[in-house]
């Protein structure tokens, strides 16, 4: 082994030593599986140290902003910004189409895979406010991209189906939307794209279950239920820690 490689490895070891010391002081040795447990702990510890430079942030109280931005806050902000970027590119792709928005496109793609969908269920699928969802569906109907019929099972329900015009418009825009997808994935390697799909799918399943829970209205109710779901899904070993992460002011025994 060459001298530069030895020096490089020694530098890495010096960087790891403070983490090892902190790990051994915090964890109970009798329950450790050294390599696997330390690896998992180090990943979480280093994630806490991540600081993303935000070009939108001003200079007012930068240290306070840095301290308050934890990992979960950063994730929420990044997911929101990715939605904004995707929406921006999508509008460019739809400039010559009768499909006017990402919501219109998503609803039409879903309708194309069904003979028909009850209006209320279609709106619920995409976590839309009722009035917003109705406006989108009505716009699709006005533009001749979808049609509405009374349900044979229940006259109070309306079945929504895609029209032939809607199918043609989708076929035209698919090529443009493929360009949008290529832009959105940016500089991610193939393996990173696969890993991102896995993580986003995991989050999608979690939130789909959460938003469809009956009886939840306030943000405190959603926060409490989300914490309980994390405890149940991550397993008994994480239970004590996650229960303590319930937002302040929420009754943990309710």
Tell me what you see in this structure.
By secondary structure, this protein is mostly helical. It has 3 domains: 1-25 and 34-49, no CATH class; 69-185, Arc Repressor Mutant, subunit A (Orthogonal Bundle); 187-254, no CATH class. The protein has helices spanning 3-26, 34-48, 62-68, 71-93, 102-112, 119-125, 130-142, 164-184, 190-211, 219-234, 236-243, and strands at 117-118, 146-150, 158-162. The protein has a 3-stranded antiparallel sheet with strand order 1-3-2. α4 packs across α8 (164-184) and α10 (219-234) runs antiparallel to α11. The longest helix has 24 residues, at 3-26. The model is unreliable at 64-68 and 236-254 (pLDDT under 50).
Give the SSE map.
Elements: H1 3-26, H2 34-48, H3 62-68, H4 71-93, H5 102-112, E1 117-118, H6 119-125, H7 130-142, E2 146-150, E3 158-162, H8 164-184, H9 190-211, H10 219-234, H11 236-243
Antiparallel strand pairs: 1-3, 2-3
Number of domains: 3
Helix fraction, binned, reads 55-70%
CATH class of the largest domain: Mainly Alpha
Q: What is the overall shape? A: elongated
Q: Unreliable runs, pLDDT <50, ≥5 residues?
A: 64-68, 236-254
Helix/sheet category: mainly alpha
Largest sheet: 3 strands, antiparallel
Could you give the distance between the termini?
61 Å
Determine the mean pLDDT.
Answer: 81
- Number of strand elements: 3
Q: Radius of gyration in whole Å, from Cα? A: 24 Å
Structure annotation, total helices: 11
User: Strand-residue fraction?
Assistant: under 5%
| CATH architecture label name of the largest domain | Orthogonal Bundle
Assign the CATH topology of the largest domain: Arc Repressor Mutant, subunit A
Name the CATH superfamily assignment of the largest domain: Winged helix-like DNA-binding domain superfamily/Winged helix DNA-binding domain
